[in-house]
Prior knowledge:
NAD(P)-bd_dom_sf, about 20% strand, SDR_fam, two-stranded parallel ribbon, Beta-ketoacyl-ACP reductase, KR_dom, 9 strands
Amino acid sequence: xxxxxxxxxxxxxxxxxxxxxxxxxxxxxxxxxxxxxxxxxxxxxxxxxxxxxxxxxxxxxxxxxxxxxxxxxxxxxxxxxxxxxxxxxxxxxxxxxxxxxxxxxxxxxxxxxxxxxxxxxxxxxxxxxxxxxxxxxxxxxxxxxxxxxxxxxxxxxxxxxxxxxxxxxxxxxxxxxxxxxxxxxxxxxxxxxxxxxxxxxxxxxxxxxxxxxxxxxxxxxxxxxxxxxxxxxxxx
Length: 236
């Protein structure tokens, strides 16, 4: 499909964000990615921004608007982890993860929705995690930040649903990325045992669901949490 809609993917230089950007390019969208370092995939506009910095984000959005047009599809994907058990977790470990994963989504969505309201069309897609609702030892900070995106998307749906704007959450499970590749082989085998599909997912599978949510086929889907986890979360 060819479209003049503009997509912005935060953290689109690697992993799941990169695969999402590639999918939107393949479908004919105009695509920009934010990255703190590195470049987005071929066919995208890379803008420098840290999602914890409102001023940098505003500049980045201005550049995208000037070169591609107003953003009508936003994929808030940028995220970090600082895993450790709660007893050892510092306030900094907690605050940094929440500021990036939840605060970053707040900042980019707030900046993007002005144009969506004007266009009376918008797609807000928040990339969460199976861990957000399933829980994970050593990830109190990360799981909290990711489950919070559900309340965010549902509140936004109630605020803007009548203006042609949808807001949904994609919750990936264990996906083959650089991050999971670093896990010890025994740990990977253990995780695989818990997944009914018996395998890790691919970043392209997450990208496919994200692209569908941005499409006209998903115009009546809002406030939903769509797991892409091989059955691991089972509706959590």
